[in-house]
Write a structure and sequence with these properties.
Number of strands: 29
Number of helices: 27
Structural class: alpha/beta
Largest sheet: 7 strands, parallel
Radius of gyration: 39 Å
Strand order of the largest sheet: 3-4-2-1-7-8-9
Length: 852
């Protein structure tokens, strides 16, 4: 019985979070005005309010909807078709199925993010987030959490009175629909009726049945993704993929998977949106602070100590599935804090990779909303971040240590010679087959004694012989010094057959032959193809192919992927010229018999640069191929020409002159690079001065934010006051009309016996004009004879009693004078009310009745 009552109370009902700041009151009114009274959803409105004043927000918003609107004063379980308002001096979170009030921190007003994140954690796919008008960036991180939990997100469009808050969320890419409040209300109602929100939260049998029926439709969806985005999702975990596909269907009002598969084929933008949705992952700076403390105290010092005092020491880390880069920069900050003053004595390279180009671009810029203040200490913010326009950017000194690139963890080769890999909460999205493929790759990529960090719900599975668990609590593994097993080939998607063994008979011989050819090609390329790298037009390496250690080496200094700084010195001039020719002509360029010194021997290498483009992209790429042509000769010797004829000697001399010219050119290049270093040093000094100015600017920014926050609260308060003034004007008009319609002399005075209001009928009896309002009563010359009127008024005010007597005016009319105390709404005595009742008129009417 208890479970059914909880469901009836709305424990499992969808909850809509509505966040707003300056200008958000009017938008919330418009939203509620168009919402139906019976949507079977609960609504929680979180508004930036002045914490030092009471709020009339619940009363004012209650006029826009027939749903009950209540301000939260205690812990309550949300009920459907009810609107809940956050109080001005508290923050609200959803915890354990109930709305709970927590203390508001004065440091930063992030009430919207706090509620949205708790809503995402509690309701998941049944969470809906709406961000309305406001300044700042509160709400952006919250919408990201809701979208990552498979909820639906909205933001107000250009109709927002203040668009900074919704625009911050829109730019971040975490908003599904951008609409005015009235249309948001209609979309919320439509989504409320969609099967995505009304299905049971966990129904494994039903999900399995739907997946079995929709295998071919899923296959078509995965094929569309692979053709346009180049990523095969068929071997990823289906539960997560299916849930996020159904979320996109709810956004587009589609209920059947087959319809959505057809919709994808006709809409390339939706393919990109689905791709981004499938890759969304919640991340933040220093996620799991306990793990980062363990790194700083134990594992990073051990890695640094193992490097010794070697001047060419390098510390190399890799973060697969880095999303928007918070994990990468957190590791960089930890390393800098651990090294302290020794940071200049070690080269640091941290690689962050992800499938999404948009998140990689976000990570490269290193710009984040002010919501990071709750995860990063004030000391770290000051040291490692620059603040601009309410946002934080990672300083250049930290960004220079980090390299971001697009990489498919399940298809592309891993990085090599790594000291640490942080792959947290990535493997949980992969199938067991891909899991078995990735763990050996990590083992191969790590140096002996290197560390692998996994998420709380992840493990190395059946590869205990490759890794030793050295920190069970933080899931940190150390590489064992054993040979890496042959990696498992990634699965090739075969649609319905991949999911149902009974359908294998449907596979044609052509498909099997195609698979054999792919495997054979892979073996041939890995065993016999020459080493190569893929670079962009800025000569940055995007991919390493084959064994490139003969031709490339990382030089001491800042981390870089510039090919000209990675290639061995003797090859720089020829490689530069070959790349230049290929870029200039947009055709393959080749340079033969370039010399390279490796392991004390001189070798000859052919360099070929081939420009190419990828389908559905206008960007140009270059494939640089290194093909070794001869075996090594004696150390320090160039290849010698055979024979002693004059022609042969001349050729030998020309070869030597050519080698000398190359050396001279290399010297010029080195001088140029030295000049560049000097310019860079001068630039660093300028940057240092700029940082000092930036520090002053940050202080001003902080003061500006405080004023902005206060201004937001005052704006909201002003909106409430404006509405209350409007109400007072209506009440005042009603009172004036009421008094004007009463044919009875009435005068109201305050505690000082000053006239505050009088009816038109009182003008003759008391001789009061409209201009007499605000004058003391004793200055008037009434037409009635009451010499002790002031004394009567003071007695009434002091005793809170009532006085009545008969009086006669100057014309001989008889009246009944009644004096009552004037009571305010809070039951306070603030003057008296004088009323005259015409007794002569009553007597005359009585006589007329008797005669009749």
């Amino acid at each position: 019985m208890r479970g059914s009552s909880e469901k009836a109370d709305g424990l499992l009902c969808p909850i809509v979070g509505v966040g707003g700041s300056a200008g958000g009151f009017e938008a919330a009114m418009e939203l509620l005005r168009d919402l139906p009274a019976k949507s079977e959803m609960a609504f929680v409105i979180v508004q930036h309010l002045d914490p030092h004043h009471g709020s009339q927000l619940a009363k004012l918003l209650g006029k826009a909807t027939t749903m009950p609107v209540m301000e939260l004063t205690e812990t309550v379980r949300p009920r459907p078709n009810t609107v809940y308002i956050q109080p001005p001096n508290k923050c609200v979170v959803l915890k354990g199925g109930a709305l709970k009030l927590i203390r508001r921190t004065e440091k930063l007003n992030l009430a919207i993010d706090q509620f949205f994140e708790s809503l995402a954690e509690e309701r998941g796919a049944r969470a809906i987030g709406i961000l309305l008008s406001g300044t700042g960036s509160d709400g952006t991180a919250g919408l990201r959490a809701i979208k990552a939990a498979d909820g639906i997100t909205f933001a107000q469009d250009a109709s927002a009175k203040f668009d900074a808050m919704p625009q911050s969320a829109i730019r971040s890419g975490f908003v599904d629909l951008v609409l005015p409040p009235s249309e948001i209300a209609r979309e919320v109602q439509r989504i409320a009726d969609h099967p995505y929100l009304r299905r049971p939260l966990s129904d494994g049998a039903e999900t399995e049945r739907l997946n079995y029926q929709a295998a071919n439709d899923l296959g078509r969806i995965f094929l569309s993704l692979k053709k346009q985005m180049g990523v095969d999702f068929s071997a990823y975990k289906e539960t997560t993929l299916t849930r996020r596909i159904q979320r996109r269907m709810a956004v587009h009002r589609i209920e059947k998977l087959g319809q959505y598969a057809r919709f994808l084929r006709e809409n390339k933008k939706e393919i990109e949106a689905l791709f981004d949705d499938l890759l969304i992952n919640v991340t933040r700076f220093f996620r799991d602070e306990r793990m980062f403390r363990a790194l700083r105290k134990r594992f990073l010092p051990a890695l640094i100590k193992s490097k010794g005092r070697n001047r060419a020491a390098q510390l190399r880390l890799w973060v697969p599935g880095c999303a928007t880069g918070e994990e990468v920069y957190s590791l960089a900050i930890c390393i800098l804090e651990t090294l302290g003053r020794r940071v200049s004595k070690m080269a640091i390279q941290i690689f962050g990779t992800d499938l999404s180009d948009s998140t990689i671009e976000h990570a490269r810029t290193g710009i984040y909303s002010s919501a990071i203040e709750k995860d990063i200490s004030r000391t770290r913010l000051k040291r490692f971040f620059s603040k601009r326009d309410g946002m934080y950017q990672i300083k250049r000194s930290v960004r220079d240590l980090c390299t971001f690139a697009r990489q498919n963890l399940t298809a592309d080769p891993p990085f090599s010679r790594l000291d640490l890999i942080s792959c947290r909460n990535v493997l949980i999205y992969l199938s067991p087959l891909l899991h078995k493929q990735c763990i050996p790759q990590f083992h191969y990529a790590l140096n002996p004694g290197g560390y692998l960090i996994l998420g709380p719900a992840e493990s190395v599975g059946g590869f205990d012989e490759l890794f030793e668990l050295v920190d069970r609590r933080n899931k940190i593994y150390a590489k064992k010094n054993v040979p890496t097993p042959h990696p498992v080939d990634p699965v090739v998607y075969r649609g319905f057959e991949a999911r149902h063994p009974d359908a294998r008979a449907l596979a044609s011989d052509g498909i099997a032959a195609g698979q054999l050819q792919q495997i054979a090609d892979r073996i041939m390329l890995s065993a016999y193809a020459p080493a190569a790298v893929v670079i962009d037009r800025e000569i940055r390496v995007q991919q390493f192919r084959g064994r490139t250690d003969l031709f490339l080496e990382h030089t001491p200094g800042p981390a870089t992927l510039n090919l000209l700084q990675l290639v061995r010195p003797t090859m720089v001039a020829d490689l530069r010229n070959t790349i230049h020719r290929a870029l200039k002509t947009d055709k393959p360029a080749r340079k033969e018999r370039t010399l390279v010194k490796y392991d004390g021997k001189m070798r000859e290498v052919n360099i070929e640069v081939v420009p190419f483009k990828v389908l559905a992209s206008d960007k140009s790429w270059l494939l640089v191929i290194f093909d070794e042509t001869t075996k090594g000769t004696r150390p320090g010797k160039l290849p010698q020409a055979l024979g002693k004829t004059a022609g042969q000697r001349e050729i030998t001399a020309l070869h030597r002159e050519l080698a000398a010219s190359r050396e001279s050119l290399q010297a010029v290049i080195e001088e140029q690079e030295s000049t560049n270093e000097e310019l860079k040093s001068a630039n660093e000094e300028i940057e240092s001065s700029n940082e000092e100015l930036q520090s002053s600017n940050e202080e001003l920014e902080t003061a500006k934010e405080e004023l902005q926050s206060t201004n937001e609260e005052l704006t909201t308060l002003n909106e409430e006051l404006s509405n209350r003034n409007f109400e007072m004007m209506q009440i005042n008009s009603d009172l004036n009309n009421l008094l004007a319609s009463i044919q009875m002399p009435i005068v109201m005075v305050d505690n000082t016996l000053t006239v505050r209001r009088a009816t038109p009928a009182a003008r003759h009896a008391f001789n009061i004009l409209q201009t007499d309002i605000g004058r003391p009563l004793r200055e008037l010359r009434p037409n009635i004879d009451v010499p002790d009127l002031e004394q009567i008024l003071r007695e009434v005010i002091q005793t809170v009693g009532t006085r009545e007597r008969k009086i006669i005016d100057n014309d001989g009319h008889e009246y009944s004078l009644r004096v009552r105390p004037y009571r305010t709404a809070d039951n306070r005595i603030d003057g008296a009310v004088i009323t005259l009742v015409d007794i002569d008129g009553k007597k005359q009417r009585r006589r007329n009745k008797v005669k009749a």
